[in-house]
Amino acid sequence: xxxxxxxxxxxxxxxxxxxxxxxxEYGTGHISSAxxxxxxxxxxxxAVGTDYKLKGQHEAIKxxxxxxxxxxxxxxxxxxxxxxELIVYCWRGGMxxxxxxxxxxxxxxxxxxxxxxxxxxxxxxxxxxxKPFQLIVIGGCTGSGKSEILRALAQRGEQIIDLExxxxxxxxxxxxxxxxxxxxxxQFQNYLFEEILKFDENKRIWIEDESLAIGKIMLxxxxxxxxxxxxxxEIGVQKETRIKRLVGEYGASDKEEFLxxxxxxxxxxxGQHFKxxxxxxxxxxxxxxxxxxxxxxDKAYNKGxxxxxxxxxxxxxxxxxxxxDYAAQLxxxxxxxxxxx
Length: 341
Fold this sequence. Notes:
By secondary structure, this protein is of the alpha/beta class. It folds into 2 domains: 125 residues, 3-Layer(aba) Sandwich (Oxidized Rhodanese, domain 1); 205 residues, Rossmann fold (3-Layer(aba) Sandwich). It is built from 17 helices and 12 strands. The strands form 3 sheets. The protein has a 5-stranded parallel beta sheet with strand order 1-5-4-2-3. Helix 2 links the parallel strand 2 and strand 3. The longest helix has 20 residues. The radius of gyration is 25 Å and the shape is elongated.
């Protein structure tokens, strides 16, 4: 049975979703809930593609069947273990998903083949970033606890977009330390889209102030443009408090990895500051190391603040303790003050 992408969104919470593309395609980007059962693996896909270019479609199809044949029983058995009714997609909802469904149906597995495939899902995902969201951007110097505040807001029932959590990165040169590898930009966007699907677009959404790039991933241009024009709540936290928070955050990181990250910003930090920070790091004085690094980060933040000063609707000080109470204060401020204007 064929289904369009809208029917897919209705059915996917009830049925397992199978991605029959190669493991390489799946790794680049896939529907978040999908299980990968490649009809053609990476090497086989290359072989079929080569035959298609050199010998034409007919020979490529025969090559595909010859390669899949020995693995066909295993493919069907794997699908059968997942469920007796499945949603199936490939890149464009074409030959691979059609063949997979045919094999599965012969084994008594009911299938729903998504027309347009993953490409149609991506089209909907990319379009979603153009929606007019009611964003409130949380800004503040490095170490202000913006991510912690954001998550406390979520605990109070507020809608949030936690970009750093989705990206597996904290945004700075040190943001990847002690975190799992980042997704691809494409997969990051898929995860982001799935978060957006949960929102009531008529209500406010809190989001942390970020650069266009978070580590190696890039934010969607349309969302980034909205962030740059949205109202800002600026969080003010004393430098001493920020140093303590950052030491608590990065103090357990591998010293060599921290030094490598620091080396990447040598030019921006300045040779003298880099040398001083390195000496303190090797001495085990993390407080002094962070204090030196904040000289650069605070300067960069204050420079960027000039570009958003006209959008600051609320300046709020926080002592860095009791984040739940502070989140409650922000919610009250959002309710009582016209920070969305």
